[in-house]
Design a protein that fits this description.
Blueprint lengths: L12 H54 L5 E4 L2 E4 L1 E4 L8 E6 L11 E9 L4 E9 L13 E9 L1 E10 L5 E4 L11 E8 L5 E9 L6 H4 L11 H9 L7
Antiparallel strand pairs: 1-2, 3-4, 4-5, 5-6, 6-7, 8-9, 8-10, 10-11
Amino acid sequence: MANSGTSRAGFTLVETLAALAIGSVIIFSTGALIHQSVFFFDRGTRTVDQSEQLALAIDSLTRDFGAARFVLQSDANGLMAAFTATSAGKDAGAKIIFVTSGGKAAEPQGEEIVSLAIEEGEGFTQLVRRRAPWRGPRMHLEDAQPDDPVILLRGKFDISFSFSELADGGELIWRDDWTGETGLPHSVRLNLQDRTSRAAGLVGAEFPIHANAPTACAIGEIDCLSVAARNVNARTNSAPSQPRQ
């Protein structure tokens, strides 16, 4: 007796919907995995780039502040050190300008002016280094026109500097600027703070000033980097030389 039933091949509607649901879950999971991989890879790449940039910036600042020269220049208020650091204001960012012991832009005596400026951009802050030839004590820092800009740091964080002076008791007193002084700072500190989390991005990046000071400082007759010694140092450098007998 012949089989009157008819065999049918294919999927039912329920099986098709189940297959589509399983496929959608697989596609969604794969897409999420790829997105997370790209996100973490990009964040890791940015972290590496910022770490490398920070390391290069610290190396440059170490060399610049370590080569700072102890130079006195005269103005209407008397003698003052050729090292000026102003804090940020409404119209301009913080800026440091001082004399170093040399570089490609230096004059034959092997000295140049270094300018470190903190500049604000659209959503970022950057630390820019510039330089200019130093032509001797008769040249005032404000007359220099530093050029050849190099961006040392750039990112979404706040950048500032602090300057220390050595008090009589041996402790360090920190301040936000250094203007009109007859001596150099004892050391300079770089401060970084993330704008989003407000967490400190760099702690303890301090750069000591190894000043090329007058001979009286080198042999210990006066302490050129202390608060108490500033007036003594100024008088020592400004006193007229006595004629030989």
